[in-house]
Design goal:
CATH architecture: 3-Layer(aba) Sandwich
Strand order of the largest sheet: 3-2-1-4-5-6-7
CATH class: Alpha Beta
Mean pLDDT: 95
Oligomer: single chain
Number of helices: 7
Low-confidence stretches: 259-263
Shape: globular
Radius of gyration: 20 Å
Helix content: 25-40%
Structural class: alpha/beta
Bound molecules: nicotinamide-adenine-dinucleotide
């Protein structure tokens, strides 16, 4: 166990479960004081209660600007500052084909996934700008970096998060604030409540199953001073999925090709 985040205060939205929970646990192990922000109060309070005095829960709906401001104020009041903001909360959208989709979940998906990231970045950034800077990590998705089909509202929101983060990174750099994104892919959590196996087999070059811990490690790197020279990027944590589909070893190679004669 290192102390990569010793002396730092962090907020993790959507921190009660899945990737957010793994991030909270890793940050706490690395010496940070952490505020878990989530709409799920039972899970959030249980998580914070089990991690001791360095972790607190604040019920927050990230789509509500006043609640996000109250969250930032809570972190500053409870732990004396705010150095790392992980805008991780997100929800999925309909998998219906586009022309048959009534788009009834569109507003909520944009409010939570996109506005939640925008307002979290702004309110944390305002504090950081006046207190020497900080690191903001926004959660996009491989679904926002690649083409393809549904869930269309979700993937559109995730693409916008990556673009938003690039743009804001340039806008707030003068205050010592870094803004980066992670783009997880095919991680078993509450949001991926379907069998990931067939998709991983076809789409993911590294066939190992990615974990919430894998994603948390990338978030830790972007949160810590090890990434002090990095801003405005999006890091896929996806077993190579964005790079392209796996190239399988050929068993019957054409004569004269590189693989001819090999197993
Ligand atoms: N699991 C994956 O494969 C994957 C892939 C790409 C991106 N992501 C993204 O990772 C992030 C975390 O998702 P996860 O996979 O851990 O799923 P999850 O469902 O386990 O976690 C999402 C958390 O966000 C919380 N939340 C939902 N709406 C909220 C709101 N309005 N305000 C505050 N909290 C809210 C939920 O209560 C939950 O605790 C999401 O942004 C998701 O889109 C996940």
């Amino acid at each position: 166990m290192g102390q990569e985040l010793a002396g730092k205060v962090a907020i993790v939205t959507g921190g009660a479960s899945g990737i957010g929970r793994a991030t909270v646990e890793l940050f706490a192990r690395e010496g940070a004081r952490v505020v878990v922000a989530d709409v799920s109060a039972d899970e959030g309070e249980a998580l914070a209660g089990g991690l001791g005095d360095a972790v607190a829960f604040k019920r927050t709906d990230v789509s509500d600007a006043d609640e996000v401001q109250a969250l930032v104020d809570f972190a500053v009041h409870r732990f004396g500052g705010l150095h790392v903001m992980c805008n991780n909360a997100g929800i999925s959208s309909s998998f219906r084909r586009f022309l048959r989709d009534d788009l009834r979940d569109y507003d909520r998906v944009m409010a939570v996934n996109l506005f939640g990231v925008i307002i979290g970045t702004q309110r944390a950034g305002r504090h950081m700008a006046e207190h020497g800077g900080g690191s903001i990590i926004n959660t996009s998705s491989i679904g926002g970096l690649t083409g393809g089909g549904p869930p269309i509202s979700y993937r559109t929101s995730k693409a916008a998060i990556a673009q938003f983060s690039r743009m804001v990174a340039t806008d707030v750099a003068e205050y010592g604030i870094r803004v980066n994104c992670i783009a997880p892919g095919h991680i078993a959590t509450g949001i991926t409540n379907y069998d990931l196996g067939p998709t991983i087999e076809v789409d993911q070059p590294l066939q190992r199953r990615g974990t919430t811990q894998d994603v948390a490690e990338a978030v830790l790197f972007l949160a810590s001073d090890r990434s002090a020279q990095i801003t405005g990027i999006t890091v896929p944590v996806d077993g190579g999925t964005v790079a392209g589909r796996p190239v399988r070893r050929m068993t019957a190679a054409p004569a004269g090709s590189e693989n001819a004669g090999s197993a």
